[in-house]
Amino acid sequence: MKHTLLFSEKAVTLHEFGEYSNHALLFIHGNSVPSSFFIPLIQFLEAKYYIITLDLPGHRQSEAWKKEDFTPKKLASLFNSILEYFGINEVDAFGFSMGGLILLECFDLMPAVKKLAVAGHPPLSSAKDIPEAYRLNEDVSLIFQGVVTEEETESIYNALIAIEDTQLKSEIKQALIETSPSFREGCLQMALNVSNQISKLNQRPHPIAVIHAADDPAIQFEYLQNMQINNLWEQKIQVIPECGHFMIGEKSAKLAAILDRYFSEN
Question: How far apart are CA 56 and CA 32, in angstroms?
Fold first, then answer.
């Protein structure tokens, strides 16, 4: 079901799936791929969970923010307002790609959030980790550029996703064009000023699930292996084989199975 929340005088589009009485999850999508791209994943989980997601500001019908508004404090306030809107006092959360970075920047300001899972984003201790954590090149870096041309959307798709599905490719390229440039610029500023996410995770009582696609062209697996996270779930990175960065669509069943196993544990 679709909802509209007015936050800071801007409309934000919300979506809910599943039965309200079920275990609640909050999903946060990635850079320039709105919440509709979670649908293949949600279809495996909605019978068991109550799932809330949103189109982040500047995506689809959610109104754009200024780039300087994309701060952990304001985003956490938005997420807290969403949980309050739905009457949710306790929730587990999953962030995909840039949504993972956003979640790890915000969770300590969100008292309702308990367990955390991130995929397609390596937890960082500072911006100095970025060269070791990511495989950055000119095409991958375009995802943080404000305005992108049709040619540049092609480069982004080929660099990060490269799935031979013409409809998916068309949908993602269109989403890249439609996303507000201020979102990508704001995300870049967040990344360059990232907090010590690993230290914050090590202070939590709950384990953190870190999920990695084996063939992810953007993430350095060696960095993930060397992270010093004390409460890493099962003491290992959860690896999905034969999968690229866009795991929410490419290997949605396997990703759903990992999330279900993690979120259903006491």
Answer: 9
Amino acid at 101: L
Q: What is the pTM of this model?
A: 0.97
Which residue, chain included where needed, has tokens 């990695």?
212
67-125: pLDDT as tens digits: 999 999 999 999 999 999 999 999 999 999 999 999 999 999 999 999 999 999 999 99
CA distance between the termini of the chain: 29
Cβ(211)–Cβ(117) under 8 Å?
yes
Residues 6+ apart with CB under 8 A from 208: 115, 116, 117, 118, 123, 201, 229, 231, 232, 233
d(CA 5, CA 205) in angstroms, rounded, equals 31
Q: Report how far Cα 45 is from the mean position of its chain's Cα atoms.
A: 17
